[in-house]
Design a protein that fits this description.
Length: 368
Amino acid sequence: MRILICGAGMAGLATAIDLGATGHDVTLVERAGHLRVNGSPIDIRGDAIDVARRMGLLDRIRDRRVDMTERVHFVDADGTVLAELPGDEVSDTPDDIEIPREDLARVLYEALSPATTVAFGESIGELHDDGDGVDVTFVSGRRDRFDLVVGADGVHSLTRRLTFGPERDYLRHLGFYVALTELPAGAGAGRGNPILNWPGHLIGITRYRDTALGVLNFRSGWIDYDYHDLDAQRRIVLDAFAGHDEWRVPEILDAVRRDPELYFDSVSQIRLPSWHRGRVVLVGDAAHCASPMAGRGASLALTGAWLLAEALRAHPGDLGAAFHEYETRQRPYAERAQATAGPGGDLIVPATQEALDLRNARLAAAGR
Ligand SMILES: Cc1cc2nc3c(=O)[nH]c(=O)nc-3n(C[C@H](O)[C@H](O)[C@H](O)COP(=O)(O)OP(=O)(O)OC[C@H]3O[C@@H](n4cnc5c(N)ncnc54)[C@H](O)[C@@H]3O)c2cc1C
């Protein structure tokens, strides 16, 4: 089949590899002008490890793993440690592989078949599915026709909006926003991964290799903003943390002001009763984002891509049967991840001063 994949994140890249390996003619388009590689290290867990092995990528992924078991230190306004959270309380099993997003993206990108057509700075403009194929007009003005379109364009998927309707019908906001920004070299010096809280807010530093990231998280009801307007996102973050100049807050906010690759998003889930319509199918966050709090986005991207490719191979010429098999096998992973995404927020971003004090007292009493 001639297959268009929209979005070159983990899900889009993995799908392009798996479908390319089964002999399909794959075109991959990415709205950004380059691979989007920023963000904090992500986990590969559970059956996704086996998928990585079957893709022939497990050794390359393991070679690039980073140790993220460094303790989280909850600090006060002066930087004094109030309580500690061991790394094992935030990851599942010793088998989990943490890898920087940039490394996983590069491993996947390098594994693309040379026959894959990749276009950066390109996206779908319109699509029309007439039952026998999908006519696509790209934002560049180019037109083409495909047998199958795969939406791998993340939590705010355009493919999903064009095919299934507005995002608000499927997005469940969990009440938090998150931002990540790279700090200047040397900013990560010191012990642990420090976090300062005040009610409803978290600001901290997380380190891996020579990189230090500023992490910001706050509780808020739904905020309407343009996902493509980075300055608007910057303003939301700066407003949420305005009026605080204790500890290393000014330094982290300064990085937010300057970072051309600032990552900002609502902590949300996507819940769709079905991930396919006609000749369009969704993978990764576009289909079933469980939110960064679940820590399973990359694992779900790998299993979803693999199961979709397997299902298409098992049911040649029968998209309906293939999609049914893909959804039946992938949905339990997605639902389990979505079910586990909730409680972490209360631990790392307590809503009230009372909850904050209780958490610190509990951890301190546990000798942490
Ligand atoms: C920059 C960035 C940083 C992230 N950082 C973290 C993190 O620190 N921790 C965490 O848990 N999760 C993070 N995530 C989310 C995480 O990558 C995903 O949950 C997981 O890897 C599943 O990936 P995905 O490919 O489904 O979605 P994504 O990783 O979101 O990838 C979607 C891709 O589609 C592209 N795209 C979007 N719209 C269009 C369009 N209209 N046309 C073409 N392409 C489009 C995007 O630019 C992106 O490259 C981040 C995502 C991004 C994009």
